[in-house]
Amino acid sequence: MQSTREWPDASAAGAAPPAPPSVRPTRAAALLQVLATGGYGVWLWLGLSLLLGLSRLGRNGTLVPLGLGAVLVGAGLLLACLRIPGLAYWHGWQPRPGHRPTRSALTALVTWLPVLAVAGLAHGDNSFWVTRLAGALLMLCSLVSLLQATHDDRACLPAPLQRATALLPACRITTAAYTGGLWLWLSVLAQGGFDGSHDAYLWILLLFALALGLGLLESGMWQSLREPEAVSGEVTASRSRFPARLVAALLTYALPCMALLLGGTAGSLLAAALAAPSGVLGQLLERYLYEVALTDTAAARPAPPARVH
């Protein structure tokens, strides 16, 4: 999960380089991060299902969501390796000779090891204990990678904004579970899964619960961002963002939940094909607006007075 800011070249120290508050995020980098978050979410659900012995779609049924997650997660790394302008950094690291990966980049790279293990071990009903262990490692590494990337994003902020973004780790994990669940729903339906209506009902209820939790967390994050010494300029900017935030909420929650209600139990592939991209677009807009708000808030706050020695 790459940051939405272009970092200066400071990755040789092995830590995420600090970003100046005035650097504004880019929509392309925000899109890559939203895709990567969804990919980690797919791996989270897949690893959990392997651990609990619930993945019984056979080898192809495991490889398809595994490959889907790899595409979503690996897009940012591929573009960084190709040195695409504006997207040359991945987790604060520029992947080229002479540049040491940051902690976040190393964590993300390690996550690919259980991915390869699951790809090699997937077979039959996936009940072999080594396969289930690989699934547990996949789930754990995906969680750690999400948390490490979120920690690096928050470490670039001033102390007041770090306190204001205390809900960000929980929000990122819930986002991964929700958007990854939408992608996994699409993947399973494309393979003819969810034959039983009972399983479909449980999955729909779970996604509804995640949508509700994510909405509450995002609302709390915006509220925390406005609380510390809000000035008139910040209030005006918040009001100006409301229409865009409303569109983001419609794309993130309204359309996917409507698709779940209308086509979830019927196993409609079209409904799933509409829900997953809608969730991505909504989270892209929400992510970009929040990053811009963080940048503007950090730039508007006065710098701390210098100490006199």
TrEMBL record:
Residues spanning the membrane: 30-51, 63-84, 105-123, 129-147, 167-188, 200-217, 246-276
Domain of life, per lineage: Bacteria
Protein name: Uncharacterized protein
Signal peptide limits: none
Protein source organism: Rhodanobacter lycopersici
Region annotation (Disordered) ranges: 1-22
Lineage: Bacteria, Pseudomonadati, Pseudomonadota, Gammaproteobacteria, Lysobacterales
Keyword vocabulary terms for this entry: Membrane, Transmembrane, Transmembrane helix
